[in-house]
Amino acid sequence: MIELVPGTNINRYTIISEIGEGGMQKVYLANDKILNRQVALKTPKNKSAEKRFHRSAILASRVNHPNVAKTLDYFAEDGREFLTEEFIDGVDLDKALLSSYTSVDPYLTAKIFHNLAKALSASHHVDVIHRDLKPSNIMVIGGVSATGVKITDFGISKMAGDEIDEAAKNGQGSITSSQTAMGALPYMAPEIIQSQGQVSKPSDVWALGAMMFRILTGEYPFGLGYMAIPNILSGKHTQYPDFIKSNKQFAPLANEIIDIIEKCLNLDPSKRPTADELVSLCGQLCYPVCNREEGVIGDTRLAYGFIRIPNQPQVFFHYDSVYGSKPVSNDKVIFSKFLGGGHDRAHPVIKAK
After folding, report:
1. Burial letters 72-86, b for 16+ CB under 10 A, else e
2. Which residues are 85's β-sheet partners?
3. Spans in the chain with pLDDT lower than 50
């Protein structure tokens, strides 16, 4: 079997580098020699996954939306299955936001929620259920600004879903012993655990709601590991932190987002909104679309301070514009800035990790 190292030619593609690896697949950056473009080339890691790869590729190719990574090609060569997908010049949601922000402000949360709802709606319209929605399957373009988000691995998620189904059918012990199922567990709908792995469109809606809870609060809604299972089954999630509702600058939008999240996390699948309804609900949210920058808190006073940016004038901020924990001098922050008298002004301001 050919070793996939830089320079290796597979069909019409030349391997540039390995760029990722999950429980089910390896991902390579490759050059399409015919169309002269870069693509993500994916191949299953083992024979068990390989048996389902073709079926999964067919499912993935049915979804066509700007917020979904596009499936481009499928082929077999040298005894291996390959899937090519559009190359997304970004990183997954964990690396882009959750590892940078202590918690993501309601403005950016609403934008992400809205875009992912539209992607989910497109997939459900062609009867494709993702089954494994989690931050590692959401690609983010533009770093902390999240100028673009795309759901990926619709095909691979079908294989992961099969493993999750099998684990669920064999009981909670099998779930906690499956690496794939454990990765999905923080976002897993209760009916998957209760009903022997039965997955439906509302299961995707639950997963999206659980992800949005984590983005908005910085906390896993039901905890991590096997301890999350009783919380998921009871529907009792972690309390929303006080800071989300205590600041009047952010509370109105945050409350609207929370209301949608709670609808997604209804224990009864039939009472959750459909993906189309989610698009409508998120479309009613009023949120700005602004680039984000990173800086360091400089001088501060009782109610305001300044943010230092290398080789740029300082940016003024008021503590009323801070979302989450209060930053102090020398703390790293993420913010948007706008023109102001004397100094540009920052809003919102979020303490970075």
Report:
1. bbbeeeeeebbbbbb
2. 40, 71
3. 159-161, 173-178
Structure letter (DSSP) for residue 70: P
The structure tokens listed for 240 are 């929303």
Token code pair at residue 95:
């690396």
Q: Do 199 and 192 form a contact (C-beta atoms < 8 A)?
A: yes
Q: Which pLDDT tens digit goes with each residue over 132-187?
A: 899 988 999 999 999 999 998 875 655 444 555 555 555 554 444 445 556 678 99
| Phi-psi category of residue 16: left, alpha or beta, with phi > 0 → left and psi -120 to 50 → alpha | alpha
Report the half-sphere exposure of 138 (CA within 13 A, side-chain side): 26
Residues 6 or more apart from 144 whose CB is under 8 A from it? 96, 97, 100, 101, 292, 294, 334
Token pair of 87 as six digits: 């190359």
- Which DSSP string corresponds to 141-194? ESGGG--EEEE--HHHHHHHHHHHHHHHHT-HHHHHH-HHHHHHGGG--HHHHH
Condensed to tens digits (0 to 9), the pLDDT of residues 304-315 reads 999 999 999 999
Convert 338-352 to b/e letters by CB count within 10 Å (16 or more is b): eeeeeebbbbbbbbb
